Amino acid sequence: MAETTSAVRFEHHGDPDVLKVQDVELAPPAEGELQIKHEAIGVNYIDIYHRKGVYAPPLPLPAGLGMEGVGVVRAVGAGVDGFAVGDRVAYVGGPPDAYSQARNLPAARALKVPSDMTPELTAALIFKGLTVEYLIHRCRAISSGDTVLWHAAAGGVGTIACQWMSAKGGMVIGTASSAEKLEVAKANGCTHPVNYRQTDFEARVKELTGGAGVDVVYDSVGADTFEKSLNCLRPRGTMVSFGEASGPVDPVAISTLGAKGSLYLTRPSIAHYTAQRSEYEAAAENLFQAIREGVVRAPEITTYALGDAARAHTDMEARRTTGSVILIP
Ligand code: NDP
Q1: Strands ordered across the beta sheet of 233-241
Q2: One domain for residues 39 and 120
Q3: Range of the domain at 63
Q4: In the list 59, 130, 183, 286, which could disulfide-bond 63, CB 3.0-4.6 Å?
């Protein structure tokens, strides 16, 4: 009889209650795959886009969910080198199926977890930390003296970004939606926290930069902030639009970038910055080293049981979470 495992599945796009934990069949790992028993699973905003069906192209239904996990290898498929039963591995990407007790994963996405990292900390950091790694080193490299506007500065990615950018000497203006979240951003190295529910962030950025504007904006909020974010840039500044927590960004006319000051605009994805194995491994090593050196500290971690994935989504969408959210299978 085929083995089964518990996994989250959804048959329709929609609200968190579409997520159901089911017993699903788990075949032995195919060629090039590892079978992993999860110890901790990262929850990321992309999971919410997948669940809602707003991320193009939408996942074919019924679908699994989750792009980040940590666990122990329990079987190795044919043709896989470099991994053995018992290894602790973490991953970003692969088919969305991290919300499960066990799964098969392309070995090309697996990274060995250093012995000084716990499964919980790794699940809290690997997707979000690798996102920050590429955004501030390889997408638009931050150097000492750069001025940066970072939205959702107290969230999972934002918490790590504030720490890492401030260690690199960036002057970070960070937005968040409550006084408590501003405190979190500040504690993580954000130089100027701004409550964008109460304060016009564009006016505040102009004030803080003496009218000049910032060198770079990292905008993951999307619809609600994109246009004003462009107005926050200095001439020849860079707009990194990397998410849409408030909804998709309207199309932008190329002439707008000229009119607003010869701006650069990029819409990056972690998938393209970790697709090559050598870049993926080097980025992970960069992140683990930043943790060892204390440049990036353990974030606040909120833990839910795998069966409470819907509640984790509800809290994240309601903007109740700060730091990282993980599921324990
Ligand atoms: P967060 O923990 O940052 O949660 C999202 C945050 O967005 C909320 O806490 C909230 O902060 C803010 N927000 C603003 N408007 C809304 C809204 N209308 N509804 C909900 N939240 C809103 O999530 P993650 O750390 O997982 O991800 C952060 C962003 O980074 C996401 O947009 C995600 O898609 C993006 N991302 C992109 C990647 C890429 O490679 N392109 C890779 C990884 C993440 P507040 O209450 O302070 O406003």
Answers
A1: 192-195, 171-176, 147-150, 214-219, 233-241, 264-266
A2: yes
A3: 3-126+276-328
A4: 59
Query: E strand or H helix at 48, and its extent?
Result: helix 45-52
Query: Which residue minimizes the CA distance to atom 2 of ligand 1?
Result: 155
What's 165's DSSP letter? H
User: Which atom of ligand 1 is the closest one to the Cα of 317?
Assistant: 20
How many Å lie between the centroid of ligand 1 and the Cα of residue 111? Answer: 25
Tell me, what CATH number does 31's domain have? Answer: 3.90.180.10
Percent of the chain with pLDDT over 70: 100
d(CA 158, CA 82): 33
Which ligand 1 atom lies nearest to the CA of residue 44?
26
pLDDT confidence bin for 55, thresholds 50/70/90: confident
Determine the pLDDT at residue 57.
87
Number of domains making up the chain = 2
**132 alpha carbon to ligand 1 midpoint, in Å?**
13
Q: Give ligand 1 pocket residues (Cβ under 6 A).
A: 44-46, 128, 131, 152, 154-158, 176-177, 181, 220-221, 224, 242-243, 245-246, 268-270, 316-317, 319, 321
The angle, 0 to 180 degrees and rounded to 10, between the axes of the packed helices 156-167 and 179-187 is 40
